[in-house]
Amino acid sequence: MKIRNLVLSLTLAGLGLNQAAAQGTYPSAPPAGRHVGDGVRSVGDSSSYAASTPDVRPTEFRTTTPTGGYIDNETIVDMKMLAPTASHGTGANHYTQSASNSSSLGWFSTEALLWFGEKNRSPAMLTTAGTGVQAIAGANGVNTLFGGNDGSDRGLQPGYRVSWGMYLDDCEKVAVAGRVYGLFTTSSSEAANSDATTSIGLPVYNSATNNNDAFQVAFFDGGVNGRITGNASVESELQMFGSDSSLHLLLGRANDHRADLLVGYTYNRLKDSLGVGYTSTNNFTGDAIPDGTIFQGSDLFESTNEFHGGHIGVLSSVTRSKLSLSTLAKISFGNMHQTRRSSGSRTEEFNSVVTPTADGFYSPSSYGSSRDEFAFIPELGIKLGYAVRDNLDFTVGYTFMFWSSVAMAGDQVGGAFDPASVTAGGVITRPPASDVSDSFWMQGIDLGLNWRF
Questions:
Q1: Of 70, 92, 104, 385, which is most buried with the most CB atoms under 10 A?
Q2: What's the Cα-to-Cα distance from 84 to each of 78, 80, 88, 257, 310, rounded to whole Å?
Q3: Per-residue pLDDT tens for 27-85?
Q4: Distance (Å, rounded) from C-alpha 114 to C-alpha 313?
Q5: Which residue(s) pair with 116 in the sheet?
Q6: Local structure of 43: helix, strand or coil
Q7: Under a CB-based contact definition with an 8 Å cutoff, are residues 260 and 216 in contact?
Q8: pTM, two decimal places
Q9: Using one digit for the tens of pLDDT, what is the confidence trace for 401-425?
Q10: Residue 416 φ then ψ, to 5°
Q11: What is the rounded CA–CA span in Å between residue 300 and residue 360?
Q12: CA 312, CA 93: separation in Å to the nearest integer?
């Protein structure tokens, strides 16, 4: 019995020594497979593993490598390939997601903006009519060139938007980003010039008669009493500039789409101005004004709105091959600092003697005010991208922005006084200047290029 037990013990010891020799000393030599002959990695092995035992199983039961080959005793398998920590398939950038399987962590995009905004809102400020018809707003045969109930179109405004950002981690969960955008200062204007064959008027509401009226810049009654000749013009300008910085926080993602939460700071400035000028030479003998008297005047209304606040939003994207579709919903809350300024001047010239007055036609000589109001600025956008190269997209999109509380230049125009006081050489009696707050919107097309790096 003792001899039999001794032989059995030696046999078991020999088997254990053979197994240890096969495994070698790790990590100086790689471990053998947990199951003899299968070369399959077992739980607890290192992230890199070389099977030292040939795999004798049929090919349909053998493990393939990411390149399509089979794992054998010379193949190193990186376990990170089996469980990646992040998906780079959706790319990363503000409002233009990648349409390629790039692992780029940064982005830079530049866009051309073609936007248009809400119409100018102001009282009627320039009217024309036919021969013998006084250019009084609302009367039959009178055409309103600027202002009034229908407003005045500002036209298409070009602009720019530059965006950039960078993910702070390889998993693309947190990023910092920024934008600078704006619209170039553009002007829209209406003008009329007449040798009295047509009538030109600067309309007002006559506070003395409680009716619509007008200062006649040009008028001709058919030759009975002579004529008034002159010209008048109205011009408006709008300028917008904005910037923001955001922290992007991953909400969710899959291989072909992702959604990010945006939080950060927004600055925006919206400037609006409206000016009117006229020259009128009176040779009408049917009134009390000496023939040859020249009236000149100009008015300027300006408003500036500066916004500081925080924002929150959601940026999402979907990719399919070379195409990508991104959507942005963002709203900013904060303080709007409104500033209003107006100025005006008039002169009356007769026999080369110029007499200035203390104010303008629509505005006092100088006026200014400011105030702060709570405001919000929503922004909505959609953008389609096409990957022309692995790291370069062409994009086309649409953006809508809304300002809840702003001061606009046209809202300052009162236009309620007796126009007879214009030709009397005195100060016009008019109501106090208006400090109305209004809303404003803009929308348009965006064309751009996005580079990922």
A1: 385
A2: 10, 5, 10, 17, 35
A3: 444 444 444 444 444 444 444 444 445 555 555 555 555 445 544 444 444 433 333 33
A4: 24
A5: 443
A6: coil
A7: no
A8: 0.74
A9: 999 999 999 988 876 666 666 665 5
A10: -125, 100
A11: 9
A12: 17
